Amino acid sequence: MMIVIMKSQAEMREISAVIARIEDAGYKVHLSEGDERTIIGLIGNGRPVDREQIERMAGVERCVPVLKPFKLASRDFKPRDTTFPIGNNLVGGKEIVLMAGPCSVESRSQIIETAHACKEAGAHILRGGAFKPRSSPYSFQGMGEEGLKYMAEAREQTGMPIVTEVMEPALVPLVCEYADILQIGARNMQNYALLHAVGESQHPVLLKRGMSSLMEEWLMSAEYILSHGNTRVMLCERGIRTFEKYTRNTFDINAIAVIKQMSHLPIIADPSHATGKWEYVAAAARAGVAAGADGLIIEVHPRPEEAMSDGGQSLKPKRFARLVTEMKAIAEAVGRNIN
Amino acid sequence: MMIVIMKSQAEMREISAVIARIEDAGYKVHLSEGDERTIIGLIGNGRPVDREQIERMAGVERCVPVLKPFKLASRDFKPRDTTFPIGNNLVGGKEIVLMAGPCSVESRSQIIETAHACKEAGAHILRGGAFKPRSSPYSFQGMGEEGLKYMAEAREQTGMPIVTEVMEPALVPLVCEYADILQIGARNMQNYALLHAVGESQHPVLLKRGMSSLMEEWLMSAEYILSHGNTRVMLCERGIRTFEKYTRNTFDINAIAVIKQMSHLPIIADPSHATGKWEYVAAAARAGVAAGADGLIIEVHPRPEEAMSDGGQSLKPKRFARLVTEMKAIAEAVGRNIN
Amino acid sequence: MMIVIMKSQAEMREISAVIARIEDAGYKVHLSEGDERTIIGLIGNGRPVDREQIERMAGVERCVPVLKPFKLASRDFKPRDTTFPIGNNLVGGKEIVLMAGPCSVESRSQIIETAHACKEAGAHILRGGAFKPRSSPYSFQGMGEEGLKYMAEAREQTGMPIVTEVMEPALVPLVCEYADILQIGARNMQNYALLHAVGESQHPVLLKRGMSSLMEEWLMSAEYILSHGNTRVMLCERGIRTFEKYTRNTFDINAIAVIKQMSHLPIIADPSHATGKWEYVAAAARAGVAAGADGLIIEVHPRPEEAMSDGGQSLKPKRFARLVTEMKAIAEAVGRNIN
Amino acid sequence: MMIVIMKSQAEMREISAVIARIEDAGYKVHLSEGDERTIIGLIGNGRPVDREQIERMAGVERCVPVLKPFKLASRDFKPRDTTFPIGNNLVGGKEIVLMAGPCSVESRSQIIETAHACKEAGAHILRGGAFKPRSSPYSFQGMGEEGLKYMAEAREQTGMPIVTEVMEPALVPLVCEYADILQIGARNMQNYALLHAVGESQHPVLLKRGMSSLMEEWLMSAEYILSHGNTRVMLCERGIRTFEKYTRNTFDINAIAVIKQMSHLPIIADPSHATGKWEYVAAAARAGVAAGADGLIIEVHPRPEEAMSDGGQSLKPKRFARLVTEMKAIAEAVGRNIN
Fold it and tell me: So what's the pLDDT on residue C220?
């Protein structure tokens, strides 16, 4: 369903050509002839029509799509919230789920120490990066499978499920062996081969929003995963790139309410990346809970000044524990809870 | 205080010229000669040196300012929070102040009806536009002084102080006659003649952030007002312009914590403009409280579908009343309160 | 003329209410009932209908305006290019006009020296700021009327008309006494009181695009001036604010072709502000000519390392002279010329 | 080499801790004690120090890196322009290379017809997509290997080398069998596994800038490829995402001059994606040549209104031929040429 707006000077034969094209595709045409413009509506269920093709026809000013380009991800398609269990939590339900841990797994002792500290502070799920996307080829690229093994050991000791990033299709089977949730990083939100692979895997997915992705594009990327029959998808707002320089990213807090309205999928907030500085993480985390997030993912490191990545935005376990208390109070104030 | 980074190929005479210029301005020079670069530091209290002048000198790669460009607005200058009374509220204190009302004053009955409804719902200050900045010369431009008179009448009836926008220096005296707080709109954040005039007025000011202003520029604009001895300045985050299209603006929730850290001035959140759609206003308002805002300004209209401006983002009084209840619960959760 | 897209679940009575509202405003209604949505078109010439009002009605998803919101500025309204003489040049015609000079007038000798140098290099119009908008209240704010007098003297000596910024309505008469063209700076593009005043003045205007203004908003601001009967308006693309940090602004070179298509007004490029670094000015200036600009405004200073503002982006007269030669060659290549 | 700026209230023991950390890493320390701040410089060649680690230390306000984070891609490392032959052209030399062809290969006849038309019009290299990154899983995803075969046939007939996108590491060997140049699309600019694979392949690479990537990040991605010993890398500016809506992207014309200054790698302009509308492609292409691009890549389709992707931004062969003539004239005007 689409509307075609013709140019004011469009000629009769141009209008006829557009109509013929639309009817060819199996649609009924609905014509509105104003004094200044003619508007052509497509009605019914024809074959998909490419918007750009129509826009290239003579006399056409522009096309306005009436329907959203995503379907399985939309609330129109599935009005009720999607929920699914991860460990002892029901993601997308009344309880807010807390994911916490270091940016990178740096050593066996580091991840195990952090896991225990996060668990004690109230976290439900352990985060940690084994394969790290780094802007520079000279930066620490992660411990790889060794890191995954240490995370699995931390899970054994604490009972916390683990979420970790997978960066390429070929590694999806390996990461699935260890991880409870596959994270797609912001840089890979439109890495379609990877979306295909995690879709096929049937593993729960945490899909981060691209640094400058429209919410519509984000939901389209979710659609890629959903279209493989993998329905356990969480969306993660982690800040977008803007002109502002005092923070690493701009936390698009609006996205939480918008996504809840447009989609049935759970929405997770990442205040660590959304601010990029530990001093602002607590305020952003509280805001995320107040705005209606279904979960949070927060970077915690026992000694941030020694972290091999993202030390600047990591909380110490003590500060994280205090933040959990703050978030619990807000969760209650908005009719949710954190256990 | 500034650091000058020389180019890797900078010649001795170029370095000497920079040193001479800095010493001329009354600074001591501190030289660091690395293998790859020479770095020149300015120390002491010389005459102001223009960064761009130095950057234009031969052999200079760039200058790094060490100090922030604003002073009176900074927390370094005044570590304790600025507070001042408006009506029965102490802005900047423990209590969160609520400003509410229509985008535009449209008629006597409209503003009086709305004022009573807002008051009952829990608002402290009445907002309303008499002079309206509109993108189109063909749109309703506000009722002017007549609108101010109706607002004054609404204040009489409800006891609520009033905040309204002033758009040009020549009108500052007139608006001061009626208003308790002068609002500088986003489009005028860098209208220096206007900042000068409201600075001189000694009236309390609500300074909205420009649509695409850096926080640093926003604080510089506050500095313009403060430098006239007018210390009653509130900053108002109202969303910034980004690439995202589902919302009118992107609410920069990070700004609340950043401004609280960098400045002593009260910070107010405007969830109506920051989202641009009434459906998202409540979530944004709750987030603002959770993040630490000292106040909120929210558009309320008894019949938004008839509003002459911003109907799309206005709450009905009933929804606003429910939101006040929600905000009260969150305020308590973060150790603040709304009376 | 507008299209209203109803929600998929819109009820019959909601659709009827929208229709009633539209008919009330004097429009004919055109109804398209698809399987998934109902779409309502407004046809004919009714009273202006506020888009946001309709969008707030129950059951409405969104409204799509069919016509552009500006009229006098549009090519639909006036298909042929606007041209008008300034000095010996016909702005908007086949010849490309060159404006050059310092950012600020700093002294009598500086502006006169620069004027002669620019004239010799091939400039047609002298630029120079007497009233300067500066982010910091502590920066040099310009020489004021004294600066205007020196510019007038420079005009006398060189025969070049002068363009200079006016920042507040109250100063329009004063600046009109001296200047041949009134410049509206980027920060004031939506300063409506100022647009009104320069519209009334009937003086030629150079309207800079706001730092983050949509082209549509820019043309709406031109509309403010045009609606006062002042038709001598030039638009000036001076770069927009983006996330990129290596340059001060991002030169929106696309805007030149888009504006030429949408509007009949002359379009001027400002490569100095659009890049912010003198090293990149020549490339941007050449690009501006190649893209179809009707003129360029370029900052030139005899000793940029002593400039009181914008030294970093100013060309020395010699480099400017070489650039003029480069631009002449490109002008010819695109069928224009620079005399 | 880095500069550490301490907070104004930094204590002696905090300063000492930072110094100790820096000396530990093998650097000499250079201390500047101002009245307001202490500044610590790192000199010499120590082990890499993580900026964020230092910024997390007590008393530190921020760190300023002195050197650029990329090396092999920088002009400091390799002052002379990189050039290499592709077919009969020397990319990066005095001649400007023209790549043209359809967005997608749609059929054998379509690509062969287009190839001949492009060749006749003056193109040197044939572009065409066989594997297509599409926002929607429901859109045409390209013909895959079949498309590559048709491209190879078109090369046979016309003698033009071919450039085509590769989207996942596993397909690099296959695409290398057919393509002369591997294109990395904007969405994959930070797909590090893919950068690694094309680096290893030793095939020439066309690296598109990410939709919202800083130039610095773009050069870091080039560094990933260069660090595998693959030096035949071309950078491609294809527009960035901004707030502006009239064009699909904003062509960052400044990037051409900035990249030429910072890097020795050839820079290619893509006016088709940078504008998104065929009406603006010619102006953008001319601007690209005038600004100093080493090549252009332009979408051409014999019947854009039937194109399966990007029809809206494709030129018809006739218009492309005219554009080649226009570009030749500008190339000459800037001392380059197009053969």
Answer: 97
Q: Is C67 helix (H, G, I), strand (E, B) or coil?
A: coil
What is the token pair recorded at C333? 């290549």
Residue C136 tokens, joined = 């910091």
Burial of A25 (0-12, 13-18, 19+ CB in 10 A): middle
How many Å lie between the alpha carbon of A167 and the closest alpha carbon of chain C? 25
Predicted pLDDT at B244: 96
- For A269, half-sphere exposure in the C-beta direction (CA atoms, 13 angstrom radius) is 30
pLDDT at A274 over 80: yes
* Chain-centre distance for alpha carbon A247: 20
What is the Cα–Cα distance from A216 to B114, expressed in whole angstroms? 36
Find the chain A residues whose C-beta atoms sit closer than 8 A to any C-beta of C.
1, 3, 5, 8, 30, 32-37, 39, 41, 43-45, 64, 66-67, 76, 212, 241-243, 245
Report how far residue A210's alpha carbon sits from residue A218's, in angstroms, rounded to the nearest whole number: 7
**CA pair distance C302, C281, nearest whole angstrom:** 16
Separation between Cα atoms, residue C264 and residue C280, nearest integer Å: 29
pLDDT > 80? residue A34: no
User: How many Cβ atoms are within 10 Å of D47's Cβ, its own excluded?
Assistant: 8
Q: Are strands C162-165 and C125-127 parallel, antiparallel or unpaired?
A: parallel
Return the structure tokens found at D192: 């590090």
Could you give the angle at the alpha carbon of A137 between the alpha carbons of A133 and A138, nearest 5°? 115
Among the listed residues A224, A165, A217, A239, the one whose alpha carbon sits nearest the alpha carbon of residue D187: A217
pLDDT under 50 in chain D at which residues?
A: none
Which residues of chain B fall below pLDDT 50? none
Neighbours of B184 (CB within 10 A): 25
Longest dimension (CA), chain D: 76
Cβ <8 Å between D41 and B32: yes
Q: Which residues of A touch D227 (CB under 8 A)?
A: 137
Which of B254, B277, B323, B337 is the best residue to mutate to test the A interface, defined by the most A CB atoms within 10 Å of its own CB? B254
* Chains contacting chain C through 3 or more C-beta pairs under 8 A: A, B, D
Hey, which bits of A250-293 come out as E strands? Answer: 267-269
Task: With CB atoms and an 8 Å threshold, state whether B244 touches A215.
Answer: yes
What's the gap in Å between the CA of B238 and the closest CA on chain D? 17
Residue D339 distance to chain C (closest CA, Å)? 17
The whole-angstrom separation of Cα A127 and Cα A298 is 8
Torsion sign, CA atoms D277, D278, D280, D283: positive
Task: ipTM value, please give it.
Answer: 0.95
Q: Dihedral (C-alpha) B46, B47, B52, B58: value to the nearest 10 degrees?
A: -60
Separation CA A314–CA A68 (nearest Å): 38
> Cα separation of C327 and C290, whole Å?
9
Average pLDDT, chain A: 94
Helix (H, G, I), strand (E, B) or coil at C182: strand
CB distance B56–C304 less than 8 Å?
A: yes
DSSP state of C337: B
A299 and A315 Cβ atoms separated by less than 8 Å: yes
How many other C-beta atoms are found inside a 10 Å radius of the C-beta of residue B220?
Answer: 25
Residue range C294-333, pLDDT digits in tens? 999 999 999 999 998 888 999 999 999 999 999 999 999 9
Residue A311 has pLDDT above 90, yes or no: no
Q: Radius of gyration of chain C from Cα atoms?
A: 23
The confidence score (pLDDT) of residue A79 equals: 95
**How far is CA C190 from each of CA A114, B273, C170, rounded to the nearest angstrom?**
52, 17, 17
Nearest to D186 by CA among D211, D219, D218: D211
CB contact under 8 A, C66 and A243: no
